[in-house]
Amino acid sequence: MLWVPAFVALMTGAVDVGTIFAHKSNYWSVARETARQVARHAMTESEAEAYAAEAATFGGVTPTTDVVITATDVTVKLSGTADTIASFEVFDILDGTEISASITYTLEPI
């Protein structure tokens, strides 16, 4: 009976870590796809930000989205905080920890 609280804490912690890794993987995938589309001139900066925010919304959590287009490349950055992503918030050390993905692609010639 003494091990039940420790086991429950361990299991909820594992769920939180798994959820955070799923979000991080989703951020990378969406940032990569958004940067690819912008590099091919399929979207403008504002369209790309709206697309990335919608596509990266996972489990009801929408990340902060930033798309920067320069003369030669495009950078897409998605970020969120671990404490908003985690379901159980077992680990207090996650408070304020940023989960992010940043991808840079070279713009294709027109």
Describe the structure.
The protein has 110 residues and is of the alpha+beta class. It contains 3 helices and 3 strands. It has helices at 3-39, 45-56, 82-85; strands at 64-69, 73-81, 98-106. Strand 1 and strand 2 form a beta hairpin.
Quick description:
Helix 1 packs antiparallel against helix 2 (45-56).
Q: In percent terms, what proportion of residues is strand?
A: 15-25%
Point out poorly predicted stretches: none
By helix and strand content, what is the structural category?
alpha+beta
Helix proportion of residues, in percent? 40-55%
Major β-sheet profile? 3 strands, antiparallel
Overall residue-averaged pLDDT value: 91
Q: What oligomeric arrangement do these chains adopt? A: single chain
Radius of gyration: 17 Å
How far from one another are the termini?
Answer: 68 Å
Keywords:
alpha+beta, 22% strand, three-stranded antiparallel sheet, 110 residues
Task: Describe how the helices and strands are arranged.
Elements: H1 3-39, H2 45-56, E1 64-69, E2 73-81, H3 82-85, E3 98-106
Antiparallel strand pairs: 1-2, 2-3
